[in-house]
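Quick log. Single chain, no ligands specified.
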Amino acid sequence: MRILHTADWHIGKRLHKHYLYQDFDLFIGWLCDLVHQEQIDAILVSGDVFDLANPSAEARKQYFQALIALKSLHCHLIITGGNHDSPSMLDAPKDLLLALEMNMIGGLPELIKDCIIPLPNKENPEVVIAALPYLRDSDVRLASEGNTYEDRLAAIRKGIQAKFDEAAAYCEKTYPNIPAIAMGHLYAAGVSTSESERDIQIGNQAAFKAEQFNTYFSYIALGHIHQPQRVSAQIPTFYSGSPLMLSFSERQDEKRVLLIDTQNGFEPESIAIPQFRKLLKVSGSLEQLQQKLSILEHEGQLNTLIEVEMLEEQYSSQKLANLDELVSNFDKDHLEIIKYRTQFKEQQKQSSAVFGAEQNLEDLKPKEVFESLLENEPFLPEERQELLHTFDELKEMLTTSD
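-> predicted structure:
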């Protein structure tokens, strides 16, 4: 069978108030052409279908249009939920999708067998998919497990491993001698991240170690990390990465999908996704910015999006005003400045400010804000560390609740 691995579609994503609906439409159009040309039998989407747990009407429309387009090519879809997704929202049309030969597993079912999908069918399986969605804390850890912070991290890692082991055991027992592929949505130890992933499993502290993946599987199709990369494990284990650039930190990534041809083994072929739009970061002094912006030219099918960063030695309210004017008056066809900020090496801070003028609150992660607030409080080091641990756990509960 020819199986395509992708993940982290993040339908409805907004990059600094700029929606990426056009980008996703172009990706799906390209993907449909690829499915037809490469005669793909199945597509695995390893979580984070949507960017928000309660996606907009436009995002839901795009999702169903994508499913219809791919279904018309007689390609079997297996989709799992990620930490950005609402399991109940994804699972709502589950029976309808199943009738269309599409498998949706938004949240972990009560029985592990409901995650196991033989392809092309039960009667004559060639490969078995263990479609594990994002595993929430309640899926892998009892409330009574772990009295200390380290104990709770260990319990989460052990719980994740137990689910993969259980899925492997079911595949081996029910479909002996049939190769198995596992899908997962998690943070693996040692991977490279970008700015656009949301921390999971208690602030990424409960990182899953590669040696914990069950070696019964022939391939592990992972989602969550947006930078495409291989995980160092005993079996082929890959993050396909996100198909679109979801932050300026990803502007130099080569986005891709991974093609597995089971007749040739389980080392995937990397297929580059065309870059539908450019993301550019322009840095320098005010004078340098004026010069760099004046010579920029558009490339790609969609408008180029630009992040501007002014770097100056001394704080100057006049230069801030000049930067505002430069951005406001910037007018070049198909080029848009959607984000700008300043950094002063010798900055004059107001005594009441927690962050300097160079820092926009929207550019900071919640934990960075919390850490900066803690720095201004007279906590002992062990008290500060315990507060940070508690913050990670509370944030995990808020961002993964259904």
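Confidence is low (pLDDT under 50) at residues 348-358.
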